[in-house]
Specification:
alpha/beta, globular, eleven-stranded mixed beta sheet, two-stranded antiparallel ribbon
């Protein structure tokens, strides 16, 4: 019997109107506005990226149904939603709650959550002069009381869904920032107790347990991110079940400006895949990134010199053929270990230049690469 690969794509839900965004940027604002205004920042730079499906409202169930069909038809098995609930409350939830969950064909594609518990800072767009002191809009660290609200909501609203992705019957829940999680409770011990209460509530809801996943990286990227000093000890103390990666740039530096070759990033990332299980002592789910170009999030009138995010280099040469080769590489890695789970950055990180959705330049070619390698 052919192996059933579990292939998730991260889904970034900032392409629908949200009240907090509207209060800051105006009625109907979405991150499409940044993409529309993107421009070439240096010679041979390919911007703007233009979505083949247009600038759609992802909270529309009919719109989301097309995404589901395209993903499922090409071998994806789940969307991993970047899911936001800050101390200030829920944020950017309508793509999941009104788009995916109301889509008539949602049984074709599973979903899970990656709690994006980082600070939400002003990046829309980011000015060069302010890039090292970005304005904080929403706090990633939450109070213990809010954490209890979050876990109750997740269990009742999402884990109960028949299409929620599980590993060995256990709902998969990923957390983006370990240090921010501990900051919420003040100590490792209090954080461990909170996660144990989460597990017990999951079991009380009828599930065998929780599969708790940590996104772990060693390179600071977004403003406010910090390295964890002793990740192995922290992961085991907190009871995590696995680790993963969100994007190649979390582990491999964009060390050539303005363009870092995709092949270089791919080779370095494939080398990294061998390290986490030994380093952390937990199963590791590798990542394949489609590309990287965060220039749409910069003020287009500012000079794009090398600096802190989003004033970084971009990946060059991330063609469908190069992406196909990266998928072949991760397949070899998985097969050698009799593993089947990996993720892709991303379904729709348009303003970071990493997306599987079709654009006017390549059409469905990146999705077709997944289908050709894994089907």
């Amino acid at each position: 019997m052919a192996k059933r690969y579990q292939i998730g794509a991260y889904y970034f839900p900032n392409y629908h109107a949200d009240p907090r965004n509207e209060a800051r940027y105006g009625k109907g604002w979405t991150e499409w506005e940044l993409l529309k205004r993107a421009s070439p920042r240096f010679p041979h730079h390919q911007q703007p990226k233009v979505p083949a499906w247009g600038y759609e409202d992802e909270s529309d169930p009919a719109v989301f149904a097309r995404k589901i069909d395209a993903a499922a038809d090409h071998g994806l098995t789940q969307f991993i939603f970047d899911w936001y609930w800050h101390e200030e409350g829920m944020f950017l939830n309508r793509a999941l709650d009104e788009g995916y969950l109301q889509a008539a064909n949602r049984e074709r594609l599973q979903f899970s959550l990656m709690w994006a518990n980082h600070d939400w800072v002003e990046l829309f767009p980011q000015r060069r002069v302010l890039r090292d002191r970005a304005v904080l809009l929403n706090r990633g660290a939450v109070s213990p009381q809010v954490f209890e609200q979050i876990t109750d909501h997740i269990i009742a609203r999402y884990f109960s869904q028949p299409t929620y992705w599980k590993i060995d019957g256990r709902p998969y829940f990923s957390i983006y920032e370990l240090f921010r999680l501990v900051e919420s409770f003040g100590s490792i011990d209090e954080t461990r107790k909170a996660l144990q209460r989460f597990r017990e509530k999951v079991k009380s809801a009828g599930h065998p347990d929780l599969h708790l996943n940590a996104v772990v990286w060693g390179i600071q990227l977004l403003p406010g991110e910090r390295n964890v000093s002793h990740p192995r000890e922290m992961l085991h103390a907190l009871g995590f079940d696995s680790t993963t990666t969100y994007a190649w740039v979390h582990h491999v530096r964009l060390d050539q400006f303005p363009f870092t070759p995709y092949e270089h990033m791919m080779e370095k990332s494939a080398t990294y895949w061998h390290k986490p299980e030994t380093e952390f002592g937990l199963p590791y789910f590798p990542n394949v990134s489609m590309g990287w170009d965060s220039t749409p999030r910069t003020a287009q009138s500012d000079v794009h010199d090398e600096g802190a995010y989003p004033f970084t280099a971009v990946m060059s040469g991330n063609t469908p053929a190069a992406f196909h080769a990266a998928l072949e590489s991760v397949k070899d890695f998985l097969d050698a270990r009799n593993q089947a789970i990996f993720n892709i950055n991303a379904w729709n990180e348009w303003t970071e230049g990493s997306y599987l959705e079709p654009d006017t330049a390549s059409g469905m070619a990146y999705l077709e690469a997944i289908r050709d390698v894994f089907n």
